[in-house]
């Protein structure tokens, strides 16, 4: 009988989690707010939602883990958060190129070059057959942005080869710095198979007027170059930045004046600036924290801010932060007293939520939850595969958030207790107590004297 009772208790205890899971509330009750999505294409499969200030303001998680996409049945779909800089894909630009005589390729190129007033190369003079071209000079003077790589093309009649090049950069054709010490380029063939590598990646983004391409293997035949393209990362457009202006609240910090500010959302802040009243010049320390009971963390010291008149060129540039910050509380401490407290300007570039359109429409963004989060999904790997297939400029179709409405509202921002664990332990302890009591009863009955 004891065994039978124990088995019954165990079976009941195991059924508790299943019963709790079966009675779980819909996912919508775990989130505070929702935004319906309008899809730019009905059958794109993958979509990109740029996060709005309302979504940032609703998010509870410091990592935006509580921002998800759900389908028409209210079920979450695979999605991932994409940083603005990750989505920036380089553009290809044609680069004028000139053959260089092998005997002078690493000497004074300026002496054999003719340059326009805007820095554009007009021609490079080759003298004599003894100076046959084995290297190349590239004119990047008209490119705006950081150079990431070169893509070389050569004639179809080019014999099979494998060459190693060094790429150097210069602004005056006299002083040269390496941007890629060794880059392997090849065109290998066997029967009908062909293996090509014509891309030369730089060790770091480069901005220079001129590049030169120097072969490191003298025994290899000269490359029959036909075209050169540069992968360029364009400068960030000013319109892509959004700013939050925060009003100051005067505080005392170690006996001195300071100012605190409150951010209303989980924005990925990477730039900070001050809006001063009139001319100003001061030095500041900037600190942040996410909770009122947490210690302050210094993120910028000796930050000099100045403004002279209304000319934008006569003011200090924004302070760059080493990594995005989503903290709620910000504090400024001036090195010396200031005439008026400044507004704090926090700059960010909106992120995007990329999702796979699983299930039925309509889709919606849910945000704001202290007890639910976005599940991990291999969306990034899928995007990489699609860019490989469709080209580096491919992007998911756009999905635009509409007006937000409340789901559970503020109630979703309160962490829930894990009642499943408590119920399970209670049932197990109760079962143990019942079994123990029954065993004691049997022992007493077995030890009683018989008449």
UniProtKB/TrEMBL annotation:
Keywords: Membrane, Signal, Transmembrane, Transmembrane helix
A Pfam family: DUF3999
Signal peptide residue numbers: 1-21
Residue ranges of the TM segments: 422-443
InterPro entries linked: DUF3999
Protein name per its UniProtKB record: DUF3999 family protein
Organism from which the protein derives: Luteimonas yindakuii
């Amino acid at each position: 009988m004891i065994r039978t009772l124990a088995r019954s208790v165990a079976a009941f205890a195991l059924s508790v989690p299943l019963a709790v899971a079966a009675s779980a509330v819909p996912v919508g009750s775990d989130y505070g707010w929702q935004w319906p999505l309008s899809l730019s294409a009905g059958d794109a499969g993958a979509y990109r939602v740029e996060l709005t200030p309302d979504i940032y303001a609703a998010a509870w998680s410091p990592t935006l883990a509580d921002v998800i996409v759900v389908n028409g049945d209210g079920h979450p779909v695979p999605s991932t958060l994409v940083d603005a800089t990750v989505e920036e894909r380089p553009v290809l630009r044609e680069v004028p190129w000139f053959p260089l005589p092998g005997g002078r390729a690493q000497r004074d190129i300026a002496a054999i070059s003719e340059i326009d007033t805007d820095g554009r190369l007009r021609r490079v003079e080759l003298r004599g057959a003894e100076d046959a071209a084995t290297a190349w000079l590239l004119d990047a003077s008209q490119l705006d942005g950081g150079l990431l790589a070169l893509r070389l093309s050569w004639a179809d009649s080019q014999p099979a080869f494998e060459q190693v090049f060094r790429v150097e950069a210069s602004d005056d054709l006299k002083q040269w710095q390496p941007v890629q010490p060794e880059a392997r380029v090849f065109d290998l063939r066997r029967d009908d198979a062909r293996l090509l590598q014509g891309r030369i990646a730089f060790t770091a983004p480069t901005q220079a007027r001129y590049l030169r391409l120097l072969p490191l293997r003298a025994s290899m035949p000269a490359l029959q170059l036909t075209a050169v393209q540069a992968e360029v990362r364009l400068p960030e457009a000013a319109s892509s930045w959004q700013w939050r202006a925060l009003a100051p609240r005067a505080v005392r910090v170690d006996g001195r004046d300071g100012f605190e500010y409150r951010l209303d959302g989980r924005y990925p802040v990477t730039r900070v600036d001050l809006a001063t009243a009139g001319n100003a010049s001061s030095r500041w320390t900037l600190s942040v924290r996410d909770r009122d009971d947490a210690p302050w963390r210094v993120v910028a010291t000796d930050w000099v801010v100045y403004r002279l008149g209304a000319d934008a060129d006569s003011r200090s540039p924004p302070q760059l932060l080493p990594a995005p910050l989503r903290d709620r509380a910000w504090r400024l401490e001036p090195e010396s007293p200031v005439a008026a407290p400044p507004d704090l300007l926090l700059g960010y570039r909106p992120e995007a939520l990329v999702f796979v359109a699983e299930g039925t429409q309509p889709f919606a963004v849910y945000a704001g939850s202290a007890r639910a989060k976005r599940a991990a999904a291999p969306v990034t790997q899928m995007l990489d595969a699609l860019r490989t297939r469709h080209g580096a400029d491919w992007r998911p179709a756009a999905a635009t958030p509409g007006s937000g409405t409340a789901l559970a509202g503020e109630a979703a921002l309160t962490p829930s207790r894990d009642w499943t664990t408590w119920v399970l332990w209670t049932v197990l302890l109760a079962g143990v107590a019942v079994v123990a009591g029954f065993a004691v009863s049997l022992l007493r009955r077995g030890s009683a004297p018989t008449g």
